[in-house]
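Running co-folding for alpha-L-arabinofuranose.
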Amino acid sequence: MSWQGIMDFNRRAQFVLIYALFVVCITANYGVCELKANKSATLSVDASSQSGRKIPDTLFGIFFEEINHAGAGGIWAELVSNRGFEAGGQNTPSDFSPWTIIGDETTISVGTDRSSPFKRNPVALRVQSNCDADACPSTGVGVYNPGYWGMNLENGKGYKLILHVKSLDSVNISVSLTNSDGSQTLATTNIVASASDVSDWTKVQFELFPTGSATGGRLQLTTRKKGVFWLDQVSLVPMDTYMGHGFRKDLLSMVADLKPRFLRFPGGCYVEGERLWNAFRWTASVGPWEERPGHFGDVWNYWSDDGLGYFEFLQLAEDLGAAPVWVINNGVSHQDSVNTANIASWVKDALDSIEFARGSADSTWGSVRASMGHPEPFTLKYMAIGNEDCGKNYYTGNYLKFYSAIKNAYPDMNIITNCNALGTTLDHPADYYDFHTYTTASSMFSQKNVFNSAKRSGPKAFVSEYAVWQSDAGKGSLLASLAEAAFLIGLENNSDIVEMASYAPLFVNDNDRRWNPDAIVFNSSHVYGTPSYWMQHYFRESGGAILNPATIQSNSSSLAASAITWKNSDNSEFLKIKIVNFGNDTVNLKISVSGLSNSINEVDSFTTVLTSSNVMDENSFSNPTKVVPVQTPLTNANSQMDAVIQPHSITSFDLALAQTSYAADM
Ligand code: AHR
């Protein structure tokens, strides 16, 4: 080949290579195309004190719904499922599962009857052993409870067992914690009592300390003595719970790490019910746990013993330092609506619920709260009237009755309507309007601007449910979290009108996925956060911080940015600049901060990046930290900085400020 020929060949080869790379770049779906020209951007932040605006303290919180076994079999640490034998309904005989018989038809008969000592939950379990001593299998006969897809029993930890027993004869019942098939006993004790001791219902309590561990463990009650005994309200709870208030510690520490400013509870659709008779009722969820009837939540289709009731939610909010947001049923379910003419007793029920939370310890309902161990009132200042009920029969009429009665008795209560006031004027008074959005990633990214044009007067917005869902989200993708982060940046920038926001749903027990995706995934023993959970960590400091104007100029339309000045618990101050890169280009970013009244301390400054090699990456039990924020020191921290922003990433720059630049309260 001639020299010219070699040159032509090289040029052709170069052309083919460049063309091939171009094709690779434009066909790559979500992969990163390294050889594409980078985008560039300039981010100007005005950090002067006169241009800052305080973000509402309440801006980012959490929404807890009893969905996906988030509460029963979730954050509520009770290990026994169907502890009162009520889940099969109050007509007997009934299904008492997941309780399971140990023994066969010749040795044991088990069924439910209505002999319980508890008026509101009359069903109890009748256990008849037909064998004696050597005629019984060596392991005995009886029943076991597998909990919610297996109990997590840990070596050396303490478990408190309470049960109610009755028999007309003497009893000898073994109570054991075992592994999943009962072949290994981890802890055991015996209830030995004469007939006179147990001829009436008797409450028995033990502490059990397993000498081994099992993640799929069970509680067994067995006997080798012929006779009949009854059981009711059988409870097994780890002795070590979050703040000693009955919540699973590992799950609650994930929530506490988000530093939520409010807790909206207990739903969602769960509040409404498919039918009204199956909706959550707060009065049935308070008082001694043994006396709560429990109920079947017919939207998410499972039974709840209601150990996690209205009181426990208020307690949880207090323990998290979060303002409780109580969503109450206004006589409207998915399928029925109470006529406004008949709504008075529902309104009274709402007023009673406020008295329960706020009334003095000698008031009718305040005294029930006090008897549960909280004589001091709870701080309840937010109530939502219904969930997603706007437009349903009687909603507005019912709402107005609730609104005027509550405001009349409690003028400081903030009332949240289900009717969206974005772009329209409400025909009824409200302090907040509820805004829910579940959408695709690109639509969520665009919605970062949705409140830009909102009216600046009238009720404030409460974005109480937001998430990217369906194919863009899978079971919790990086892609979803990027779009959500951009949306939250939009909320920060509009926080003069948007005062509260929460992701939904918060939790899923992996054994009962009713809704995808969710922020926190768990089973009986393990837990991990989805990228949407970790994304929320970028917004933990926003409530109560100062929003500094931030402007992006770029040839990329896939960026969103904001800047805040926030203070650590030790009073050290940071300028936090957040930038979301929703696109698949690397971005060369110039950051320019003006108006700082104090110098930047590079030693304490840091940057945090959330990204992954594939934008559809998810975390899982086998790889729980595949997509998590990575924090590194920011050695070039300065008011003028160059940074490379990775494709598909959320990046924050926390510039440590040498001294306080804002007055304590603005
Ligand atoms: O978050 C899941 C459900 O979505 C909520 O129960 C409901 O409010 C919404 O439709």
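Result summary
The CA atoms of residues 27 and 392 lie 46 Å apart.
Residues 65, 67, 267-269, 387-388, 465, 504-505, 515 surround alpha-L-arabinofuranose (CB under 6 Å).
Job closed.
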